[in-house]
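Same chain as my last thread, 788 residues:
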Amino acid sequence: MFWKFDLHTTSHIDTLLEKEDVTLTEVMDEDDVLQECKAQNHKLVDFLLRPQCMEDLVTYITQEPCTDVEEKVKYKYPNISCELLTSDVSQINDRLGEDEKLLLKLYSFLQNEPPLNPLLASFFSKVLSILIGRKPEQIVDFLRKQEDFVDLMIKHIGTSAIMDLLLRMLTCIEPQQLRQDVLNWLNEEKVIQRLVEMIQPSQDEDRHSNASQSLCEIIRLSRDQMFQVQGSSEPDPLLATLEKQETVEQLLSNIFDKEKNESAIVSVIQILLTLFETRRPAFEGHVECPPGMSHPSFSVNHSILEAVRPRLKDFHQLLLEPPKKNMMKTTWGVLDPPVGNTRLNVVRLVASLLQSNTHSINAELINLNTLGVILDMYFKYIWNNFLHIQVEICTAMILAMPPAPTDTQPDTESERVRESILIKHLFQKCQFIQRILDAWSSNENEQAEGGRRRGYMGHLTRIANSIVHNCDKGPNGPQVQQLISELPAEDREKWEAFISGQLADTNKRNTVDLAFSDYQMQQMTSNFIEQFGFNDEEFADQDDVVDIPFDRISDINFSLNTNESANIALFEARCKEKIQQFEDAGSDEDDIWDEKDVTFAPEAQRRPSSGSTDSEESTDSEDDDAKRDPFETSNPSNDDRMEVDTGPVWTANFDDIPMDTAWSSSPTATSNSETGWADFSNFTPVSPKDPLRCNSPVAMETSIETMDPLGVNAPMQPEGEMLSCSEHRSITETVINGSMKETVSLTVDAKTETAVFKRFANNMHTIELHFKLTVLTVAPVAFGMLWS
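reply #2:
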């Protein structure tokens, strides 16, 4: 790696900072200024901590740049200044957080008239946010001293960066007590009421959106904090203010008592939906409220429902007369009027109200026939799946929820079964069954004529399956069965035929397609999970449902109905062709373990002829290379090749010979047939008169002091005599090559079992090697190492 060897280039900033008149802009023009600052370059940090430099950095992010500057470099220095101030260098944080003059200059940005420059606002918000996280006590004390801080924040709430700064104050302040003090301070400053005032038709859409988002985040953050810190003695004052009935009534008054404004209406509905959120996960992995646990974040405040109930008629009227929308042309036709964001959010609000299962709310919806209007929209806007899913949720909750308790019908009453007024209204007043049958029949007729399948048919299939399921197993099953039985005979017969025919066929087709075919293009049915063989319990805690995956093992058929006889025969035939079995008897081949005589041919017989190719010579083994004359020249020409006399072939027989006879044989026992030893009597020693080197350009002088250093050619003698005659033997050879004269000698001492090899070049001693003679044993026969 480059940094391992310190190959990085030296920063030019160090050299630049050595200048006495260096300016801040010159430093910021350097490409690696941010990198050096985050690396806490001491020279650079000391330079930036100068009072004038810190003031200039704050000025860059709070004042508009000059208008005559080119646009692409207009915000270069403000951007670099923001990055330097937020590089999280402790010295810079300390200087900026403790210098009140710099904080006042930074705070002056909020005193500008709206709208704020969005880019500079983001720089300001980023710098102040990191100060809140690193210096919370100093920054909170400074902001509380500014009497107009909350007013200015609300004034600029239309700028997203200012909204983010407000939320940062609620989430990044530690410890808990300091955060609680900030919440109490903001509540005393009536920040909730001021945000509510921003959501009215007279304000622009940005203020509507940001104020609504701020209130929604305050609700979620406060509820999450209450769940995580359950031991907190003080409630969240901002959440308590938001859940008050008068606060909700003020929100609704802003949108209904004045002119209709879609942006304001949608913003208020978003806040109400957040207030109606129940069993919201406070952290990852937590899906719902634990059983038996009562927590404010898991129940809808009754005061909110009381504030909404009188305004249900206004929401119902929005479904009939939404804010004016222009005609919309689509690929399949013209929407006049389109559904619009207002009506879609009203339907979502109705679904949330139904989930609360409050008798007064349910009764008001029935009186207004809101469900009937929603069903009319469902069948009218056949391609709006956002609307279809919300209607499906409404119908599913009505069918699955138990009847809502009333004041005159307490929960303890069990003498008679309570009935759901919503289900009764849905089946009788809204003619739910008849409308499903009519829509299904109309779609089939249209498809038979070559038309397209309507966009709501997938959701309609799921709604029909929900009715069938709740009729058999739901808590309102008896009531649903009773209402179906009260249908006119013709409608009842159509419904029964529809369930057993068209609906069953659709479910079967969807299930098969989803399980084994092009499932991405099909619609998943409600009973797909049951028919496919999996359920949610299999993915739950395995300690509780460990036996569930084994319930259907008996239904699984593991047998394979295939004809394996042909495959087995083919396999055996191939095995006989490829595998040769070892047979102990009847084999014509030689046994590899039989004892055989080992014959060593002379070197000349194994050497390839002079006409052999390179490829043939390259196949010589390493053993052949080791047996060549160590003084043989490396010239491969035929003229320089050394020849070896062809002597008689000798045979080594490794028969089992007792150790006592191996070394004490008589002189007459010289035959290998009698002793089992190799006979070297006919071996011709190397001599100067031999034609071994007659063709070699190198002349050699060999002394004949002892021609057989190991005595291998001597006749066999008794042990004592053999050792005495060969106690000290030596051989010397002289090689002359031009002016180069080299003498080598080998001296063998049998008594000490050592050998000394000496080499002299031009009468100078150059090398001396000592060897230890060893006796190699090939059980049970021992023989001495042979030297050649």
